[in-house]
Amino acid sequence: MDSLEEIKKNALNSIEKAADEEALKLLKIEYLGRSGNLTMILRGLKDMPEAERRVMGALANALRQELEGAFQNGEKNLGAIAKTAHFKQEKIDISLPGAKIPVGHLHPLTKIKKEVEEIFISLGFEVVEGPEMEREHYAFDALNMPKDHPAREMWDTLWLEPLKDRMLLRPQTSSVQIRYMEKHEPPFRIIAPGRVFRYEATDVSHDIQFHQVEGLVVGEDISVANLKHITLSFFRKLFGKDSQIRLRPSFFPFVEPGFEVDISCAQCQGRGCSVCKSSGWLEVMGAGMVHPNVFKAVGYNPKLWRGFAFGVGLDRLAMTKYKIPDIRFFSENDIRFLRQF
Ligand code: PHE
Predict the structure, then answer these.
(1) Strand intervals (E) in 198-321
(2) What pLDDT score does 265 carry?
(3) 257-266 pLDDT, tens per residue?
(4) Is the peptide bond before 162 cis (omega within 30 degrees of 0)?
């Protein structure tokens, strides 16, 4: 049997040299395990003479404690080394591009709406809104179209049948004119952007829903000259300073006189192309001087006040500005289309 001195020397030596935690575990069994070297000595103590047993017992127990401490230290050190090795192996490549979070953006119609609003605000207008579900009174009667008036046919209306009080999806934003005038006194300048609905077959330039911006200016000496100036300023700010407009006589029951406002085709500068069907002009707006019957319907004195109104198709403006060939693209939600803006 090895002497205590030898056991100590060998054990400490081996603990120091142990390559990993596994090797250390085996060593611990070898020295301190049930049939380990030191354990055997401790077990043998009972057969020794009293005096010898005391001395040996004390020494052997001291060595046991010393070795237990040495194993503990060894385990700690090897554990720390193993951890560092793991970190050394794990590599972080900071030059790899990260996972991109897709960033959304505004819909082209929202973009053009904001642009149009900003232009009119710069011209002294206030932006107001009205409901998409509208009463017959605001959509037709107060706009100088009594029941059974044939002009109602100009707007292929979607009626909301089950509702008692005859209601409809507004076919034009002109109803907001009435709602605003009922609650305000002139003078004022407003625009009212919003969605409108029509009962019709769809094609590249027609959809059952589209967007308009209504304009209304009421004051004491408002004339067609003001109408021309405001609309020309607007189109020049939106499409560039070379834009031209022309007014053609037209009919809308709520204005007198009424006009179609055309803008010079931005695509061909008025020379004629496929966008403007070779005419050099694009029809984008209905307009006119507010009809006296409309003023009467809201309780204004038509002898005191004059005004002009216009309605411009937002979708058509966006189509012209961004060169979009089909109005239905706006509501199809095809990501390949939307990504282009
Ligand atoms: N509301 C008309 C339309 O939808 C346009 C318009 C507005 C015409 C205001 C005259 C005055 O066609």
Answers:
(1) 209-219, 245-250, 255-264, 281-290, 306-313
(2) 87
(3) 999 999 998 7
(4) no
Among 55, 89, 123, identify where a domain stops.
89
Give CA–CA dist 128/214, Å, rounded: 10
Ligand 1 contact via 286 beta carbon (within 6 Å): yes
Residue nearest to atom 10 of ligand 1 (CA): 287
Q: Is the domain of 122 the same as that of 79?
A: no
User: What range does the domain containing 41 cover?
Assistant: 2-89
307 lines ligand 1 (CB under 6 A): no
Residue ID of nearest Cα to ligand 1 atom 9: 310
Could you tell me if 185 and 325 lie in one domain?
Answer: yes
Query: Is any atom of ligand 1 closer than 6 Å to the C-beta of 171?
Result: no
Is beta strand 126-127 parallel, antiparallel or unpaired with respect to 188-197? parallel
Instruction: Please tell me the distance from the alpha carbon of residue 61 to that of residue 4, in angstroms, as a whole number.
Output: 10
Report the pLDDT value the prediction gives residue 221, as an integer from 0 to 100.
93
pLDDT at residue number 38: 83
Indicate whether residue 194 lines ligand 1 (CB < 6 A): no
Q: Rounded to two decimals, what is the model's pTM?
A: 0.71
Total of domains in the chain: 2
